[in-house]
Amino acid sequence: MRIAVVGTGVIGASWTTLFLRYGHEVVATDPAPGAEARLRAAVTADQTRLTFTADLAEAVADAGFVQENGPERPDLKDEVFAALDAAAPPGTVLASSSSGLLPSRIQRACAAHPERVLVGHPFNPPHLIPLVEVVPGERTGEAAVEAAMRFYRGLGRRPIRLRRELPGHVANRLQAALWREAYSLVDRGAASVADIDTAIAHGPGLRWALLGPFLNQHLSGGAGGIAHVLEHLGPPMEEWWADLGAPRLTPELTDKITQGVAEELAGTAEAGLVAERDALLALLLDAKNRTDHL
Protein backbone atom coordinates (compact mmCIF):
# COMPACT_ATOMS: atom_id res chain seq x y z
CA MET A 1 0.00 0.00 0.00
CA ARG A 2 1.05 3.58 -0.62
CA ILE A 3 0.96 5.45 2.69
CA ALA A 4 1.31 9.20 3.10
CA VAL A 5 3.06 10.41 6.26
CA VAL A 6 2.21 14.05 6.86
CA GLY A 7 4.60 15.63 9.33
CA THR A 8 7.96 13.92 9.83
CA GLY A 9 9.03 14.79 13.35
CA VAL A 10 9.69 12.15 16.00
CA ILE A 11 6.29 10.46 15.63
CA GLY A 12 6.21 10.74 11.84
CA ALA A 13 9.69 9.25 11.51
CA SER A 14 8.75 6.36 13.78
CA TRP A 15 5.56 5.66 11.81
CA THR A 16 7.64 5.76 8.63
CA THR A 17 10.03 3.17 10.03
CA LEU A 18 7.10 0.90 10.90
CA PHE A 19 5.37 1.27 7.53
CA LEU A 20 8.58 0.52 5.64
CA ARG A 21 9.34 -2.52 7.79
CA TYR A 22 5.97 -3.95 6.82
CA GLY A 23 6.72 -3.55 3.14
CA HIS A 24 4.64 -0.48 2.35
CA GLU A 25 5.56 2.38 0.08
CA VAL A 26 5.80 5.66 1.98
CA VAL A 27 5.50 9.18 0.64
CA ALA A 28 6.44 11.65 3.36
CA THR A 29 5.81 15.36 3.43
CA ASP A 30 6.80 18.17 5.76
CA PRO A 31 7.24 21.88 4.97
CA ALA A 32 10.03 22.45 7.49
CA PRO A 33 13.49 23.24 6.07
CA GLY A 34 15.78 20.21 6.28
CA ALA A 35 12.86 17.85 7.04
CA GLU A 36 13.86 15.21 4.51
CA ALA A 37 17.44 14.95 5.80
CA ARG A 38 16.25 14.65 9.39
CA LEU A 39 13.70 12.01 8.42
CA ARG A 40 16.21 9.88 6.55
CA ALA A 41 18.65 10.12 9.45
CA ALA A 42 15.96 8.97 11.89
CA VAL A 43 14.39 6.10 9.91
CA THR A 44 15.86 2.73 10.85
CA ALA A 45 14.47 0.72 7.94
CA ASP A 46 15.28 0.11 4.28
CA GLN A 47 14.50 3.42 2.57
CA THR A 48 14.26 2.22 -1.01
CA ARG A 49 10.44 2.57 -0.84
CA LEU A 50 10.59 6.00 0.82
CA THR A 51 10.09 9.19 -1.15
CA PHE A 52 9.77 12.76 0.08
CA THR A 53 7.99 15.80 -1.25
CA ALA A 54 7.30 19.20 0.22
CA ASP A 55 4.00 19.28 -1.70
CA LEU A 56 1.24 17.91 0.55
CA ALA A 57 -1.24 17.44 -2.29
CA GLU A 58 1.30 15.43 -4.25
CA ALA A 59 2.07 13.26 -1.23
CA VAL A 60 -1.53 12.18 -0.67
CA ALA A 61 -2.84 12.13 -4.25
CA ASP A 62 -2.53 8.35 -4.61
CA ALA A 63 -2.38 7.34 -0.94
CA GLY A 64 -4.32 4.37 0.39
CA PHE A 65 -3.94 5.63 3.95
CA VAL A 66 -2.84 8.96 5.44
CA GLN A 67 -1.17 9.31 8.85
CA GLU A 68 -0.95 12.96 9.96
CA ASN A 69 1.49 14.01 12.67
CA GLY A 70 1.48 17.79 12.75
CA PRO A 71 1.67 20.11 15.77
CA GLU A 72 -1.17 20.06 18.31
CA ARG A 73 -2.52 23.42 17.16
CA PRO A 74 -6.14 23.63 15.99
CA ASP A 75 -5.39 26.35 13.45
CA LEU A 76 -2.66 24.26 11.81
CA LYS A 77 -4.78 21.12 11.93
CA ASP A 78 -7.58 23.02 10.15
CA GLU A 79 -5.22 24.08 7.40
CA VAL A 80 -3.69 20.65 6.96
CA PHE A 81 -6.95 18.68 7.01
CA ALA A 82 -8.68 21.05 4.64
CA ALA A 83 -5.83 20.37 2.20
CA LEU A 84 -5.93 16.62 2.86
CA ASP A 85 -9.68 16.53 2.34
CA ALA A 86 -9.30 18.23 -1.02
CA ALA A 87 -6.34 16.20 -2.29
CA ALA A 88 -6.66 12.62 -0.98
CA PRO A 89 -8.79 10.03 -2.79
CA PRO A 90 -12.35 10.07 -1.36
CA GLY A 91 -12.13 6.58 0.16
CA THR A 92 -8.76 7.10 1.86
CA VAL A 93 -8.78 7.23 5.66
CA LEU A 94 -7.30 10.41 7.13
CA ALA A 95 -5.89 9.48 10.54
CA SER A 96 -4.39 11.99 12.94
CA SER A 97 -1.80 11.01 15.53
CA SER A 98 -3.17 13.76 17.80
CA SER A 99 -2.88 12.98 21.50
CA GLY A 100 -5.18 15.76 22.59
CA LEU A 101 -7.45 17.15 19.87
CA LEU A 102 -10.82 15.49 19.42
CA PRO A 103 -11.63 14.07 15.98
CA SER A 104 -14.95 15.94 15.82
CA ARG A 105 -12.95 19.15 16.09
CA ILE A 106 -10.55 18.04 13.35
CA GLN A 107 -13.43 17.04 11.06
CA ARG A 108 -14.73 20.60 10.92
CA ALA A 109 -12.08 21.46 8.34
CA CYS A 110 -13.17 18.65 6.00
CA ALA A 111 -16.16 19.87 3.99
CA ALA A 112 -16.04 17.10 1.38
CA HIS A 113 -15.48 13.84 3.28
CA PRO A 114 -15.53 14.19 7.09
CA GLU A 115 -16.72 10.57 7.32
CA ARG A 116 -13.17 9.28 6.67
CA VAL A 117 -11.49 11.39 9.39
CA LEU A 118 -10.50 9.88 12.75
CA VAL A 119 -7.73 9.85 15.34
CA GLY A 120 -5.17 7.03 15.17
CA HIS A 121 -3.13 7.92 18.25
CA PRO A 122 0.06 5.88 18.74
CA PHE A 123 2.33 5.58 21.72
CA ASN A 124 5.89 6.76 21.28
CA PRO A 125 7.76 5.24 19.60
CA PRO A 126 5.07 3.80 17.27
CA HIS A 127 7.48 1.37 15.62
CA LEU A 128 7.98 -0.32 19.01
CA ILE A 129 4.86 0.25 21.12
CA PRO A 130 1.89 -1.72 19.71
CA LEU A 131 -0.98 0.38 21.12
CA VAL A 132 -2.97 2.58 18.74
CA GLU A 133 -6.10 4.38 19.95
CA VAL A 134 -8.67 4.64 17.15
CA VAL A 135 -11.11 7.43 17.94
CA PRO A 136 -13.99 8.22 15.58
CA GLY A 137 -15.61 11.64 15.57
CA GLU A 138 -19.27 12.52 15.40
CA ARG A 139 -19.26 12.29 11.60
CA THR A 140 -16.83 9.37 11.15
CA GLY A 141 -18.30 6.49 9.17
CA GLU A 142 -18.12 2.89 10.35
CA ALA A 143 -16.27 1.90 7.19
CA ALA A 144 -13.40 4.23 8.06
CA VAL A 145 -13.16 2.89 11.61
CA GLU A 146 -13.09 -0.70 10.41
CA ALA A 147 -10.51 0.13 7.73
CA ALA A 148 -8.25 1.82 10.30
CA MET A 149 -8.54 -1.10 12.71
CA ARG A 150 -7.60 -3.55 9.92
CA PHE A 151 -4.75 -1.34 8.78
CA TYR A 152 -3.15 -1.07 12.22
CA ARG A 153 -3.62 -4.78 12.97
CA GLY A 154 -1.86 -5.50 9.68
CA LEU A 155 1.14 -3.62 11.06
CA GLY A 156 1.30 -5.87 14.12
CA ARG A 157 -0.28 -3.16 16.29
CA ARG A 158 -2.88 -3.62 19.04
CA PRO A 159 -5.54 -1.02 18.20
CA ILE A 160 -8.39 -0.24 20.55
CA ARG A 161 -11.58 1.55 19.54
CA LEU A 162 -12.88 4.29 21.80
CA ARG A 163 -16.65 4.53 22.18
CA ARG A 164 -16.56 8.14 23.32
CA GLU A 165 -14.39 11.15 22.53
CA LEU A 166 -12.44 12.31 25.59
CA PRO A 167 -9.55 14.75 25.97
CA GLY A 168 -6.41 12.61 26.13
CA HIS A 169 -8.30 9.53 24.87
CA VAL A 170 -7.79 6.52 27.23
CA ALA A 171 -4.13 5.67 27.83
CA ASN A 172 -3.01 9.25 28.41
CA ARG A 173 -5.84 9.75 30.88
CA LEU A 174 -4.72 6.65 32.78
CA GLN A 175 -1.14 7.95 32.77
CA ALA A 176 -2.34 11.37 33.91
CA ALA A 177 -4.08 9.78 36.90
CA LEU A 178 -0.82 8.14 37.96
CA TRP A 179 1.22 11.30 37.35
CA ARG A 180 -1.27 13.32 39.38
CA GLU A 181 -0.72 11.20 42.48
CA ALA A 182 3.04 10.92 41.86
CA TYR A 183 3.31 14.71 41.74
CA SER A 184 1.13 14.96 44.83
CA LEU A 185 3.38 12.59 46.77
CA VAL A 186 6.40 14.71 45.88
CA ASP A 187 4.51 17.88 46.76
CA ARG A 188 3.56 16.46 50.17
CA GLY A 189 7.07 15.23 50.83
CA ALA A 190 5.88 11.65 51.14
CA ALA A 191 8.50 10.18 48.79
CA SER A 192 11.32 11.30 46.52
CA VAL A 193 11.14 11.38 42.74
CA ALA A 194 13.62 8.50 42.56
CA ASP A 195 11.70 6.37 45.07
CA ILE A 196 8.43 6.87 43.23
CA ASP A 197 10.09 5.80 39.97
CA THR A 198 11.52 2.76 41.75
CA ALA A 199 8.13 1.89 43.23
CA ILE A 200 6.58 1.67 39.77
CA ALA A 201 9.49 0.36 37.69
CA HIS A 202 10.31 -2.45 40.14
CA GLY A 203 6.80 -3.05 41.41
CA PRO A 204 3.41 -2.91 39.68
CA GLY A 205 4.90 -1.56 36.45
CA LEU A 206 6.41 -4.99 35.79
CA ARG A 207 2.97 -6.60 35.88
CA TRP A 208 1.37 -3.73 33.97
CA ALA A 209 3.73 -4.46 31.09
CA LEU A 210 2.11 -7.88 30.83
CA LEU A 211 -1.55 -7.41 31.74
CA GLY A 212 -3.85 -4.46 32.28
CA PRO A 213 -5.32 -3.19 35.56
CA PHE A 214 -8.46 -5.31 35.54
CA LEU A 215 -6.79 -8.65 34.75
CA ASN A 216 -4.01 -7.94 37.23
CA GLN A 217 -6.62 -7.34 39.92
CA HIS A 218 -8.49 -10.45 38.88
CA LEU A 219 -5.42 -12.66 39.12
CA SER A 220 -4.56 -11.25 42.54
CA GLY A 221 -7.90 -12.46 43.90
CA GLY A 222 -7.11 -16.15 43.77
CA ALA A 223 -10.05 -18.47 43.10
CA GLY A 224 -12.50 -15.65 43.78
CA GLY A 225 -10.95 -13.42 41.15
CA ILE A 226 -11.87 -9.78 40.84
CA ALA A 227 -15.16 -10.26 42.67
CA HIS A 228 -13.20 -11.30 45.77
CA VAL A 229 -10.80 -8.37 45.38
CA LEU A 230 -13.62 -5.84 45.10
CA GLU A 231 -15.50 -7.32 48.04
CA HIS A 232 -12.53 -7.31 50.41
CA LEU A 233 -10.32 -4.50 49.12
CA GLY A 234 -12.97 -2.27 47.60
CA PRO A 235 -13.81 -0.33 50.79
CA PRO A 236 -10.19 0.50 51.70
CA MET A 237 -9.54 1.38 48.05
CA GLU A 238 -12.35 3.91 48.22
CA GLU A 239 -10.67 5.39 51.28
CA TRP A 240 -7.42 5.70 49.28
CA TRP A 241 -9.30 7.41 46.47
CA ALA A 242 -10.64 9.95 48.92
CA ASP A 243 -7.09 10.70 50.10
CA LEU A 244 -5.53 11.09 46.63
CA GLY A 245 -4.02 14.49 46.00
CA ALA A 246 -5.00 17.26 43.62
CA PRO A 247 -1.67 19.04 43.05
CA ARG A 248 -1.14 22.18 41.05
CA LEU A 249 1.98 22.59 38.96
CA THR A 250 3.24 25.59 40.87
CA PRO A 251 6.76 26.88 40.21
CA GLU A 252 7.82 25.30 43.52
CA LEU A 253 6.47 21.85 42.62
CA THR A 254 7.93 22.09 39.12
CA ASP A 255 11.32 22.85 40.64
CA LYS A 256 11.02 19.89 43.04
CA ILE A 257 10.23 17.49 40.22
CA THR A 258 12.90 18.86 37.91
CA GLN A 259 15.54 18.71 40.61
CA GLY A 260 14.42 15.23 41.63
CA VAL A 261 14.81 13.93 38.08
CA ALA A 262 18.24 15.56 37.79
CA GLU A 263 19.35 13.88 41.02
CA GLU A 264 17.97 10.52 39.86
CA LEU A 265 19.88 10.79 36.58
CA ALA A 266 23.14 12.02 38.09
CA GLY A 267 26.00 10.16 36.42
CA THR A 268 23.68 8.42 33.94
CA ALA A 269 24.09 8.88 30.21
CA GLU A 270 20.57 9.49 28.92
CA ALA A 271 21.38 8.16 25.45
CA GLY A 272 22.45 4.88 27.03
CA LEU A 273 19.30 4.81 29.16
CA VAL A 274 17.10 5.25 26.09
CA ALA A 275 19.02 2.58 24.18
CA GLU A 276 18.65 0.10 27.03
CA ARG A 277 14.95 0.92 27.39
CA ASP A 278 14.25 0.37 23.70
CA ALA A 279 16.32 -2.82 23.56
CA LEU A 280 14.44 -4.30 26.52
CA LEU A 281 11.13 -3.19 25.03
CA ALA A 282 11.96 -5.09 21.86
CA LEU A 283 12.88 -8.20 23.87
CA LEU A 284 9.71 -7.94 25.95
CA LEU A 285 7.49 -7.52 22.91
CA ASP A 286 9.16 -10.45 21.19
CA ALA A 287 8.62 -12.61 24.27
CA LYS A 288 4.97 -11.55 24.54
CA ASN A 289 4.40 -12.37 20.88
CA ARG A 290 5.60 -15.91 21.55
CA THR A 291 3.00 -16.52 24.29
CA ASP A 292 -0.54 -17.80 23.87
CA HIS A 293 -2.34 -15.25 26.03
CA LEU A 294 -0.20 -12.10 26.42
TrEMBL record:
Keywords per UniProt: Oxidoreductase
One Pfam family here: 3HCDH_N
Location of the 3-hydroxyacyl-CoA dehydrogenase NAD binding domain: 3-162
Pathway: Lipid metabolism; butanoate metabolism
Annotated site, Important for catalytic activity, chain positions: H121
Gene3D superfamilies tied to this protein: N-(1-d-carboxylethyl)-l-norvaline Dehydrogenase, domain 2, NAD(P)-binding Rossmann-like Domain
Positions of the 3-hydroxyacyl-CoA dehydrogenase C-terminal domain: 168-236
MF (Gene Ontology): NAD+ binding; oxidoreductase activity, acting on the CH-OH group of donors, NAD or NADP as acceptor
Underlying gene: fadB
Source species, domain of life: Bacteria
SUPFAM superfamilies in the cross-refs: 6-phosphogluconate dehydrogenase C-terminal domain-like (SSF48179), NAD(P)-binding Rossmann-fold domains (SSF51735)
Family in the record: Belongs to the 3-hydroxyacyl-CoA dehydrogenase family.
Organism: Streptomyces gardneri
Protein name (database record): 3-hydroxyacyl-CoA dehydrogenase
Gene Ontology BP, a term: fatty acid metabolic process
